[in-house]
Amino acid sequence: MSGAAPEAAGIIAATEGGVGRIRLDRPSAIHALTRPMCAAVLAALDGWSRDDAVRAILIDHAAGRGFCAGGDIRMLADSGAGDGAEARAFFHTEYRMNHRLFAYAKPLVAFMDGITMGGGVGLAMPCRFRVATENTRFAMPETGIGLFPDVGGGWYLSRLPGRVGQFLALTGARLDGAECLLLGLATHYIPSAALDEVKARIAADPGALEAILEAYDSDPPPARIEDNLPLIDRLFASDRLEEIFADLAADPSDWAARELKTLTTKSPQTMKVALRQLAEGAEMADFAAEMAQEYAIAARVVQMPDFLEGVRAVIIDKDNAPRWTAARPEDVPDALIDGIFAPLPADQAWTPAD
User: Fold this and answer.
1) Which burial class, exposed, middle or buried, applies to 349 when counting CB atoms under 10 A from its CB (0-12, 13-18, 19+)?
2) Active-site residue flag, 142
3) Candidates 60, 94, 113, 150; catalytic one
4) FRET pair for 136, CA 20 to 30 Å: which of 64, 82, 94, 119?
5) Residue 2's pLDDT is what?
């Protein structure tokens, strides 16, 4: 590679042939994003937007397993337990990165080879081309730690077929590469062993990017979720969490029983946030408006007891026994959710990067 951008821990940004390469390089944390990593991605994108020699951008990971496991959750919890300033700064920068990717003029390709969760979804989904492999494990598992599917989740998940976005947001279900392709979360399915060759060919001839991806596109195995889509559409049809719980409880299928059991482990508060987020996200005028709303939600939720308790139970103590502030959906006051969604004062609100 040549033409390296300024270094930041966890990111390798450089040009190779006619492309810009952004490589996540924090393998000990499965490339979980930090604020300096997000800032480095923004800086690289800004520089390449003015460089006519760079005709496309490739985003992948440099070493280790997984594409990106999310964000720096421990930092967010530590900050949320205090004044929340560092957490808000992280979200502000990350969401600017998400928006810049979404609005970027040059073709972007994300290689989702391995774990692609949370912040990794926020990196991949704005890209015009999203490559899944046999290693892809895609999820938005935030309700399990008292958070919500941010980084544009309200926009992307609400636009998936039927009610599968709501299902993914509430349950945190993991999808493989074949399922991602079926649902439109991925645009191509390419065996992992071919990726280095694909990237080298694109770098040598970025004008042929789409043709190269098509040439390597392969038939995936059957998508496991396909048979369950009618059940998902029927049992996750409501935007009221209480009704989803009731519909699952009334259904005699083993599938419904398993999904209901899964939901009982999640934060009722943040499941309600997720349902409203997707309902409103489906009607958002543009992606910037979505990110402004998600920032307002994140700025509040990160300091709330359910997030701190979820991180304790799942990440710190690992007892997987969170004690949520509300035990049941009906115990979450509507006024609490209204407050979480209230716009921030103008001097605190999120804005896109210049």
Assistant:
1) middle
2) yes
3) 150
4) 94
5) 46
